[in-house]
Each structure stands twice: as C-alpha cells, then as structure tokens.
Amino acid sequence: MAAAAVAVTLATIGASAHEVQPAVADVTVGPDTVTIDLRVAVEPVLAGIDLGAVGDTDESPLSADSDALRALPPQALADRLRADWPDLADRITLRAGDTALAPELASVEVPPVGDVAIRRDTALTVLAHLPDDGSDVRFGWDPELGALIVRQGAGASSYEDFLTDGTLSEGMPRGAVAERPPAEVIARHVVAGFDRIVLERPDHALFVLGLFLYALAWRPLLWQVAAFTAAHTATLALATTGLIAVPGGWTWLVGATIAASVVYVGVDNILGDPARRGVTGPRVAAVSGFGLLHGLGFAAALSELGPGRPSVLSIVAFDAGVVLGHLVVVVVAFGTLVVAFRLMPAPLRAGKPEFRAVSVVASFLIAAMGLLWIVDRVISV
Predict the structure, then answer these.
(1) Within a 13 Å sphere around the CA of 361, how many CA atoms are in the beta-carbon half?
(2) Please, how many CA atoms are within 13 Å of residue 269, restricted to the half-sphere of its CB?
(3) pTM of the predicted protein model
C-alpha cells in the first residue's frame, strides 16, 4: 500500500494557472550603483491584490481587474507601471547601511499578450545610487507585494534568500557575495524541522504517536522510528537535491497519502495482537514506505525556507529538527501515560488491559483524524 502510494504520488502532474508565485530579483552591487533585475507578475500588484494574503489570485475580489491588466498590450501595461511607479517605489525597502536609497525604474519589458489565465512575467530593471561609504546593501519590499527571491552572484559563489512578510535580505557587500553564518543556518533549520512536527503539521506528530502506541516496549518503538527516520531522510535528500519532484499542482496528493498513513497506524494498532512486545516485518516495511511520503512533505517544508537547492548543512539541520520533534512527541506521550497510570492502581505495562484500552481509544481517534484529513485534502483540490 505504501509503495503504491509513493509511485502514484511521484507519477502525477498538474498546475494552477492563478497560483501566486514569488518574484525573482537578481541583485548586482557595484562600487557606486546597485542594479536589481526583477521578474514579477505586475498585473495583480497593479490591481491592488494583497499577494501576501492569498495563495491564488482567484481568491481575491480584485482577480477580474488583474485578468483585465493581463489583456493589456505590452506598451499599455508598461505605461501603467511607469505611472504607478512612485507608489510602488515607496513600498520597496533599499538601504546601504543606514542610508535609505531611492529606487529608480530604468527599464520595463512586458511580454506580448497571451492567455490571460496564465501568469505573464514582466522584466524590470531598477537602479539606485550608493553612498560613498562602502556599506552593504539590503533589499526587500512590502508584504502585500508577495514573496520575493533575492539572488546575488552565480554558481558556488552565490547568495539566495526567500523573503516573506516584509523581511529584508542579508547585507550584500560591494565586490563580494552575502553569506549566512553557519550557526544561523543550523539554528534556523533545526527550529523549522522541529516546528514542522510539533506545531505546523499534526499529521506527522500523530503518525509518530501511533508508532508509540503500537506496543509499550522500547525495542518495537526503536525499530519503527529508525525505519521511519531512514525513509523520510532518504526522500528529503532526494527531493531537495532535485532527483525526485512532485509538481506543485499535485502536492495535495502527498498530503492525502500522509493522512492515509495516519489511518494505517491507527487501524493496525487496533487490529494487532494485544499482548505484543515485538514488531512484525510487515509493520516495519509499511512504516518505512509511509516514511518516504512524509519525507516528500518535509522536503516541501524545507523548500519554503529559501530558493534553490539547500546545502547539506541545511538538510542535516532540518532533519535533526524533525527527529527532535519525534523525540518530543514520544517523551510527552510516555510522560502523560506514566502520570495517568500513577493516579490509577494498575501498573503501566504492555499487554495489560489498561494500556490496551488506552492504545485502542487513542488509535481510534488517530485513525478518525487521518480519515478526516484525507477527505479534506481530496475535496479541497
């Protein structure tokens, strides 16, 4: 079942015509001037759509205005952009040290009119004069303009950042490339991996909780967690390095099959041997197979932290955060059971009716939640 789900997930394709995508800014910092080459869909911006609040322009009541702008001839749209540039420039943050810079629109290149339902990227060149103090340049813009990918340099000597919520880039030096300190990279990605398990996606946490409830013994838990970790680490690495990919329009299927894995662990816990203290081969194989799917979900989360392929350090740190999240789920679950059973005369032991009752009830709730997620993620397509 798990292997089939992985195969179906990786084989499907799709896309969303009005999906909000980040703008891309290639920044060149010279001795006296900073040049920013922007590729951005200007129509929703000019229409006044808050791109930080929607995932698809169709979600905005101004979507018809955006489509109308897509129908404008290139020169007409360029003229509209130039007319609105003073207001747009006020929403761009460009600094050299403590000095605010004035972005100037140097050129606009609008592609010909095509299918108005398809995104049209306009190429802008923005210039600003730098003060004579050698200070680094930072760049960003208003969160309503949407996410922004900032790039400086090329190849191995390059800097890339994925900016949301109005945040600014790192300081980009003149004649060199911005860098993130390794400690900052590690901390950011460990926290992101931990949050993915504990705060952002309860489906991953419930899957791990289901592994814990399989049997109150450390050996079967370690076998399952080891198989799950090895599998999700493999697909996390493969997906983030570009060796496998799930098209954006079908990411819902990854979510639905992850929800199916939650149903599986819950149902298998209920139907299994009440007195078990070991773990079966089919159980480990299924956990491993579903771990491959969870790894695709983790890769999607990691890709949200920045553009391009993440470094080995970023992948390892993110995965460490995920594993830390697993550990917290298990420790909290075990601690809760210990406290609960100390309030009861029955000892906490595997195979005892009391633990079996807790396992069955909790596993039923886990499976029911997984089933609700499947329905929600399928009907929301």
Answers:
(1) 6
(2) 35
(3) 0.63
Pairing of strands 23-29, 148-154: parallel
The domain ranges of the chain are 23-179, 183-379
pLDDT digits (tens, 9 = 90+) for 92-102: 999 999 999 99
Q: Is 128 helix (H, G, I), strand (E, B) or coil?
A: strand
> What local confidence, expressed as pLDDT, does residue 4 receive?
38
Give, rounded to a whole angstrom, the gap between the first and last alpha carbons of the chain: 22
Three-state SS string over 67-110 comes to: HHHHCCCHHHHHHHHHHHHHHHHCCEEEEECCEECCCEEEEEEC
Whole-number pLDDT of residue 9? 38
CA distance 380 to 112: 34
**How far, in Å, CA of 186 to CA of 47, rounded?**
39
pLDDT of 198-229, one tens digit each? 887 888 999 999 999 887 778 888 899 999 99
Please state, in angstroms and rounded to a whole number, the distance separating the CA atoms of residues 37 and 139. 12
- Candidates 143, 126, 135; CA nearest to 99 is 135
Closest CA to 84 of 119, 129, 47, 121: 47
User: How would residue 2 be classed by pLDDT, with cut points 50, 70 and 90?
Assistant: very low
- Distance in angstroms (rounded) separating the CA atoms of residues 171 and 194: 28
Q: CA distances (Å), 142 to each of 31, 52, 101, 166, 199, in order?
A: 27, 9, 15, 5, 27
Kindly report the number of other CB atoms within 10 A of residue 312's CB atom: 11
Query: φ, ψ for residue 175 (rounded to 5)?
Result: 75, 10
C-alpha of 98 from chain center: 32
**H or E stretch covering 252:** helix 251-271
Instruction: Write out the two tokens for 25.
Output: 């800014």
Neighbours of 91 (CB within 10 A): 13
Residue type, 197: I
